[in-house]
Design goal:
mainly alpha; 121 residues; 4 helices
Length: 121
């Protein structure tokens, strides 16, 4: 999935830089695809599913996607960059969670506490 994530982030930034060449339909499809990736990644990343800021951002991205023919190049560029940044953030969160999972596997009692609040030995 990481290759796909890297590819879509690159594609979003490239489209943002060349927004004057995009048709409204192309912009819409890119933003819709980005929202699908964001939703998929949010489901895979612990703790993000409850983040209303990410949910609000995806709603805003979909609003821009749907109204792409009526949006300025600046608005579309901004939405494309926002989508790329959100995906990049989720990718780094997932990477961080993977690293934490590996550390916990190395130290099974790390961070665990007994009923009295003392570390488990």
């Amino acid at each position: 999935m990481m290759t796909t994530v890297t590819a879509i982030v690159s594609e979003l930034f490239r489209a943002a830089n060349e927004v004057h060449h995009l048709t409204p339909l192309t912009a819409r499809r890119l933003l819709e695809r980005a929202v699908a990736v964001i939703r998929d990644m949010r489901e895979l990343t612990a703790g993000i599913e409850a983040n209303t800021a990410v949910q609000d951002a995806t709603i805003a991205l979909l609003k821009v996607a749907i109204s792409a023919p009526d949006r300025s190049e600046r608005e579309i560029r901004s939405a494309l960059i926002d989508a790329a940044e959100i995906i990049r953030l989720l990718k780094s969160e997932r990477h961080r969670d993977d690293e934490l999972g590996e550390k916990e596997a190395d130290f099974p009692t790390a961070g665990k506490r007994s009923g009295n609040g003392l570390p488990v030995s």
